[in-house]
Amino acid sequence: MEVRYLSGSEKERCRSLWEEAFPEDSAAFVDYYMKEKTKDNQILVLEEDGKILSMLHRNPYDVCVGDRMWRCDYIVGVATAKEGRRRGYMRRLMERAVSDMRAEGMPFCFLMPAAEAIYLPFGFTYIFDQPEWELPGMRMQDNTLALRRISSPDPGTVLERAAEWMNAWLRQRYEVFAKRDAGYLRRLIKEMESENGILEEIRENGKTAGFLGTWGLERPKQRLLFSKPSLVRERDAGKPAVMGRIVSLPDFMKAIRLKEEAPVKRVTFYIKVEDELLEENQGAFFWTVDRHSSALEQVSAGEQAEGKGEITGVINIHIRRLTAWLFGYGMPEDLPAAADFIRPIQGVFLDEVV
């Protein structure tokens, strides 16, 4: 029994397991995935006698995090063949994948869970609620509005302009989101087209006012809607959709800083992190935070909090709770008072399907 990454020429071998595990996906969507997404992803498998018994796909995205750009993996396609279930195969793959990401210096990874309970033991927690907006039908009767379809064969300049508009729209509202560019949109359009979907530009008085994506083989449903606030209304404030976990703790902490209104210029915490999956994250650190960034310093064996000089406070926290806090998804109640000076990430938007 071996755990390894498939080579490019081998990736098609995982199709049968995908079809077994995800029967709700149409043949056209699986065709799209195998042709497009496997061009640049990594597929980790557990196999025995040449048969793939379990798999995990690492799909890379360039993620904007404030003024930083990180390459982060979206974990998808986690599945085990029926005859191999309840034998710990998924755990072996998850442990290997996250360990490899840590070695690569990846700040965090994310996934869309089939069930929250599956991923809690691996340190994942919700970091994004999917909001729902709608474009009222009455607005489309307004002669100042028009829809213009955007297709994957369109020139790169058309897609780049659309991507720039989307990035600007996202940046006004969120600090964490996958960067759009011509390649991202071309692939997104092919994804939607695999299930009879389209991407349309919303134009108001001849100018770009948003983008609407729909797809669905039987009944079209909204895939995305980015638009000027005046044109849309919120249907739902959001339901938990995406879970994430900090992978390389030192790299992630570089994005965290003090709030502008903090009464101090720098604080140092003695922080003890519990992370059963990643030994590198487990243990005690001096965590120094200023107005621009933050940094961790590993505490050597036997070294106490007093060894750093003036310590602002002591934090004992599990990696799951730390992830939720620093992604702005919920602040633990048992933190020292000075922890309120910490500025977590303000807004996450990760709506990718695969």
In short:
Helices cover 23% and strands 38% of the residues.
How would you describe what is shown here?
One of its GO terms (molecular function) is aminoglycoside N-acetyltransferase activity. The protein is of the alpha+beta class and 354 residues long. The protein folds into 3 domains: 2-106, Aminopeptidase; 136-231, Gcn5-related N-acetyltransferase (GNAT) (Aminopeptidase); 249-344, Nonspecific Lipid-transfer Protein, Chain A. It is 23% helix and 38% strand. The chain has 9 helices and 19 strands. Helix 6 packs across helix 7 (182-193). The protein is globular and about 65 Å long. The two termini are 28 Å apart.
SSE order and pairing:
Blueprint: E1 2-5, H1 15-21, H2 27-36, E2 42-48, E3 51-65, E4 68-80, H3 89-103, E5 108-111, H4 116-119, E6 125-134, H5 137-140, E7 145-150, H6 156-171, E8 176-178, H7 182-193, E9 198-204, E10 207-215, E11 221-227, E12 233-246, H8 249-253, E13 257-258, E14 266-274, E15 283-290, E16 294-298, E17 313-318, H9 319-326, E18 342-343, E19 348-349
Parallel strand pairs: 4-5, 8-19, 14-17
Antiparallel strand pairs: 1-2, 2-3, 3-4, 3-8, 5-12, 6-12, 7-9, 9-10, 10-11, 13-18, 14-15, 15-16
Helix pairs in contact: 6-7
Protein name: N-acetyltransferase domain-containing protein
Organism: Blautia pseudococcoides
InterPro entries: Acetyltransferase_Eis, Acyl_CoA_acyltransferase, Eis_dom, GNAT_dom, SCP2_sterol-bd_dom_sf
